[in-house]
Amino acid sequence: MSTIEVTNLSKSYGSVQALQDVSFTIPDGEFVVLLGESGAGKSTLLRCLNGITTPTSGSITIDDEPVNGPRNDVAMIFQQHYILEQMSAYSNALTGALGRTSFLKSLFSRYPEDDKHEALRALETVGLLDQANQRAGNMSGGQQQRVGIARALVQNPNLLLADEPVASLDPASAETVMRYIRQAASERDLSTVASLHQVNIAREFGERFLGMKEGELVFDGYRDEFTVDVIDEIYGDIETEAIREERTTGPNDDPTTRSGARAHEY
Ligand SMILES: Nc1ncnc2c1ncn2[C@@H]1O[C@H](COP(=O)(O)OP(=O)(O)OP(=O)(O)O)[C@@H](O)[C@H]1O
């Protein structure tokens, strides 16, 4: 768990301003959902937080330490899970320990006992302990994504980042995977930033919401402030009639309720 401080962050690619003067602070253990249309700057922000993209200006600190490049205590889950299909779920999870194990040892699978224990604990967290020995390539997309989460947890991060982690999954698998990410974060008190494009999933799982538009942070607030008007502001002309209708006719008046969220699938 860590405190993340983003101050006046900007990133431009030539004439494209991908991030513009973005500032926010994430206290220890908070679960933050990042929202915005395609091209709003979500991936750029996550890549800056991960240290793989250098901002044009501004700063990021994790527990007062500046992020100047990739760090072992920051783990990332991607839309494409990049797991090794020929290896078991367990072996894939263990690769999360690579940052602290020598290449030679990892080549001969000679990981320390602590790392092996961590891999099993992580598989248990994502509900795959029973399938630890299963070949990852034979698992479903949702299960493979859960293996990717386990691998990120084995890295033992202070900050967990997820870039569209459920974008390629069917709605039921997306819910399951999000539930495991949320549970893992809360069990380990992990500060988490997850970008999502499904507003219904975001409303169901988010604790705090950052809304981006054309590189700017246009919303930063908690569940009770994350209203339909805010969604309109973030997504511009996206259709929000279903939510509005639901609000006027009830009974799912609260836009953050699970059933309310289900009524509007983007
Ligand atoms: N490496 C790059 N080179 C040039 N332009 C880039 C690069 N990466 C991102 N951009 C541009 O920066 C802007 C923000 O892109 P970014 O990928 O961060 O948005 P996003 O919100 O993650 O979009 P999506 O949901 O489609 O992934 C876009 O205009 C994009 O074309």
From TrEMBL:
**UniProtKB keywords:** ATP-binding, Cell membrane, Membrane, Nucleotide-binding, Translocase, Transport
Q: Where is this region: Disordered?
A: 241-266
Domain annotation ABC transporter: ranges = 4-239
User: One GO molecular function term?
Assistant: ATP binding
GO CC terms in record: membrane
Show the Pfam families listed in the entry: ABC_tran
* Record's protein name: Phosphonate transport system ATP-binding protein
| Natural source organism | Halogranum amylolyticum
